[in-house]
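4.2 Preliminary Data

To establish feasibility before requesting continued support, the project team ran the inverse folding procedure on a target of 405 residues. The structure was first converted into the token representation described in Section 3, and no sequence information of any kind was made available to the design step. The complete token record follows.
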């Protein structure tokens, strides 16, 4: 079995958590490769609901859970989630010793920076993830391994922060608690992955956020602070690019966005709130109501190209079946010209107007093993427009509510 990479194709919250949990069984290890506890991955099994922010969402379905070097690790969140899986599973957890730590100072800075931006705030999750990556780039951030060494000196980091505030939180307790959490979990993810592959096993890489939130290729500056596409995987995990394996893109059959920034297919509040309530579109990390819009094939085609997606999983089809006359954006109009090229519009997204086809109606009829004929028509329409096979269709939160095609 080849390695598998699962990535989000919109602004996050595509339903990756459920898909990863569904597929995890076949893989020896599941690896988180980007972001930090800004993510919120929801998994429902047998009526029980779990939200993971840091551990891979396969926590209920895989033996080895790994956090790669390119993740920003908040030891406090890690501690809570390790406790959860100790209660419900028998997984091993491995955190790469090169991963960046998030301390209370970065959370403070996240909030401070948002205040500074005033009216143009990004709407971050305030989990300190952006500042942690920034400290890493400044060579000030402690890595996981630094925490466990006796001679690591935190004073350059503290000196930096003292420029911003003379009322800094004391890191003594944070250090002690973090050491006790991480002490038994630290290792070399890069080497472990190589060993698994060399022995004939395969691994699954779990993305967080989505392509349109990618630091370089997304809707900057309204993006997250790490790579979110398949290109970030080899860098983060410390593996050669060829070991990324098959790339599976996850898309929801409408669009949501949480936080600020352009959103060409965004709906007015009446329609948005109808879909938000039916689809329970509230942030899994912050509880914020998500902005809602129609499916956007222009940005999806871009995300598919960026990631090298070879197959798609479509989520929340059950929600769409309850929306009468829903629409799909097939092109943008920019300065009076029609275009399907998202790249060309990336600097002018707040000026494009979506060109829709629609009203679709899909029968809310789900039997084991077969899509209703209207649902099948819709799925085939998407495959044709996106030039990509749809191999999984999810029509409910539970692991069992999934079609394989
Ligand atoms: P940050 O990643 O907390 O810095 O937030 C930057 C932007 O990314 C904000 O618009 C967040 O709402 C968004 N964001 C970060 N993580 C997620 C996620 O897991 N799902 C959806 N949006 C996210
Ligand atoms: Mg989420």
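Position-by-position output of the design step:
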């Amino acid at each position: 079995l080849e390695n598998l990479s699962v990535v989000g194709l919109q602004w996050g919250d595509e339903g990756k958590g459920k898909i990863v949990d569904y597929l995890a069984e076949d893989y020896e290890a599941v690896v988180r490769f980007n972001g930090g506890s800004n993510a919120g991955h929801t998994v429902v099994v047998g009526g029980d609901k779990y939200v993971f922010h840091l551990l891979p969402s396969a926590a209920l379905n895989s033996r080895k859970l790994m956090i790669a070097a390119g993740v920003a690790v908040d030891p406090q969140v890690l501690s809570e989630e390790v406790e959860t899986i100790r209660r419900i599973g028998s997984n091993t957890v491995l955190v790469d010793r090169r991963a960046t730590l998030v301390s209370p100072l970065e959370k403070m800075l996240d909030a401070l920076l948002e205040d500074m931006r005033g009216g143009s705030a990004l709407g971050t999750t305030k989990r300190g993830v952006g500042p942690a990556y920034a400290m890493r780039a400044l060579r000030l951030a402690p890595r996981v391994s630094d925490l466990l060494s006796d001679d690591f000196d935190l004073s350059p980091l503290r000196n930096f922060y003292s420029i911003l505030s003379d009322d800094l939180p004391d890191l003594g307790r944070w250090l002690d608690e973090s050491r006790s959490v991480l002490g038994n979990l630290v290792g070399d993810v890069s080497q472990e992955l190589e060993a698994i592959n060399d022995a004939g096993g395969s691994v699954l890489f779990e993305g967080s956020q989505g392509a349109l939130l990618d630091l370089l290729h997304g809707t900057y500056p309204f993006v997250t602070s790490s790579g979110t596409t398949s290109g970030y995987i080899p860098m983060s995990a410390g593996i050669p690019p060829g070991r990324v394996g098959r790339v599976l893109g996850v898309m929801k059959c409408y669009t949501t966005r949480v936080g600020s920034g352009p959103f060409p297919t965004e709906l007015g509040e009446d329609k948005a709130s109808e879909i938000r309530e039916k689809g329970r579109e509230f942030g899994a990390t912050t509880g914020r109501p998500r902005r809602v819009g129609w499916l956007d094939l222009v940005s999806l085609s871009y995300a598919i190209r960026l990631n090298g997606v070879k197959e798609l999983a479509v989520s929340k089809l059950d929600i769409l079946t309850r929306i009468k006359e829903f629409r799909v954006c097939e092109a943008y109009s920019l300065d009076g010209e029609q275009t399907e090229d998202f790249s060309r519009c990336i600097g002018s997204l707040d000026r494009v107007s979506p060109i829709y086809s629609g009203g679709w109606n899909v029968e809310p009829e789900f039997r084991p093993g077969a899509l209703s004929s209207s649902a099948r028509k819709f799925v085939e329409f998407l495959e044709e427009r996106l030039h990509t096979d749809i191999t999984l269709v999810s029509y409910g939160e539970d692991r069992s509510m999934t079609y394989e095609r």
